[in-house]
TrEMBL record:
The lineage of its organism: Bacteria, Bacillati, Actinomycetota, Actinomycetes, Micromonosporales. Keywords: Membrane, Transmembrane, Transmembrane helix. Residues 5-56, 70-120 form the Inner membrane component domain. InterPro entries: Inner_membrane_protein, UCP028777, YccF. The chain crosses the membrane at residues 7-25, 31-52, 64-84, 90-111. GO terms for cellular component: plasma membrane. It comes from the Bacteria. This is Inner membrane component domain-containing protein.
Length: 125
């Protein structure tokens, strides 16, 4: 029940809906560009995870290969570093207040995913 309440509060006040819209918009653009479809899948995974993060976590897939690593390096250079920086900034800003600490921690959980999204999957705790 606590996870549900935290997810609803995250959706409304923690920026979950805005993160979802941003990652989903990036996924649509990557789908349209066809060659970037793997990035679109990763962006969509981040969109769904950022919409409802409490009670779930990201886990590395065991079958990720070398191509996933190369694509992650490309993602890191083009988009990952500024996405991670925005999550860190939002996390620090949210942790300033006592009420915002769980939402700040949720933003910090999104940092590794924003840096290195391919080869990960969302799993329930």
């Amino acid at each position: 029940m606590i996870r549900f309440i935290l997810n609803v509060l995250w959706l409304i006040f923690g920026g979950g809906f805005l993160l979802f819209i941003g990652y989903a918009f990036a996924a649509v653009i990557c789908f349209v560009l066809i060659i970037t479809i793997p990035f679109a899948v990763a962006s969509w995974r981040l969109a769904v995870y950022s919409l409802w993060p409490f009670g779930r976590t990201l886990q590395a897939k065991s079958d990720a290969g070398v191509a996933t690593g190369v694509a992650n390096v490309l993602w890191l250079v083009l988009a990952g570093w500024w996405l991670a920086l925005s999550h860190i900034t939002a996390g620090i800003a949210l942790c300033v207040t006592i009420i915002g600490i769980p939402f700040g921690i949720a933003n910090f959980k999104l940092v590794p995913a924003a840096l290195w999204p391919l080869g990960r999957e969302v799993v329930d705790l």
